[in-house]
Fold:
Amino acid sequence: MNIKPFAVEEWMNAYEDGARYNIAETCVDSVSLDELFLLAGEDKQAFLERFCARRLTYGDIVGSEALREGVCGLYKSLKPDEVIPTHGAAGANYHVFCSLISPGDGVVSIMPAYQQLYSIPEAIGADVWLMHLRQENGYLPDLAELKSLVDENTKLICVNNPNNPTGALMSRELLGRIIEVARSVDAYVLCDEVYRNLTQEDGWCESIVDLYEKGISVSSMSKVFSLAGLRMGWIATHDKQALRAFLSHRDYNLISCGMFDDAVSALALRHADALLRRNRTIVRENLAILDAWISENPHFYYTKPQAGTTALVYYDFDVPSYDFCKRLYDETGAFVTPGDCFEQPKSMRIGYACDKKTLEDGLTALARFAETLG
Ligand SMILES: Cc1ncc(COP(=O)(O)O)c(C=O)c1O
Structure:
């Protein structure tokens, strides 16, 4: 299967390790196991002793009960047998497309978004239609456009809420209207929810699974729980036919997700509230820093994110985004992601949920670099 290069991941792979100020990262400031046990208030020694005594079999094939119950705690209406653990959300998205989509199926996807959501179905041979999120609409889907893109061939509508890269957040009402369109053609809605709950305002953040019988939620431990190193994600849906397809494909490419990752994820999910409290504080304090910086730096402008960990920041220099970001990196060590990775020229994606000092130093370097451009 031929597939387009994954622009954002290729960029991260090439430069992330050498970055002095990494303000491209999208996870909320990752934690170590030591920090996790401290935050959770659990006994690390007891956990490790229990784990070290276990034989390393494949473990629970479909994930431990503790893990799946922990995932259910993040939703209103989900049951453990409706959760399919995967290798991260990246594995989950890939799995959804490979399990449900055949050549010739209609798929509607948003742009800009994480590239998996349109390049994988395209590689499978689906007819992919893009729904463009525009700055003048606050990067929210235009329902008239969505209606014009669906027909009886549409199998799947893909969205990402909150959105990477823009930080836009769809309300329950808007999700409801997308569901009406999906229901009119009996399509699934895949919602990539890896940044769910990382909101700027308190309040319940709706999942597609709690709103639509053919809703499919994808998420993971990486962003909201700062544990990307576990490579643990999941698919959640009430739809029995989709669940059967996911389990069948999973036997071919996964078997199970690994006992250690399962056990640590289950422990972290038992303390989801504590982790979420930490991470909401980080995204709120750090977005205030970025927002102040934007207002002090007239060459840059953006639509302030409502949620997530990323912002799409435009500049008024006549420099293509790859050149801008590469020169910034070479001359200052500050690392951001070119907007062209998301087909958004003259912009960059800033990940603002890193540690505060890195964010401040990275933004200072960016302002200094802008001075050299005039
Ligand atoms: C929208 C979105 N989905 C999925 C992923 C992959 O996340 P994971 O680490 O869980 O595989 C990312 C990572 O950046 C993302 O931004």
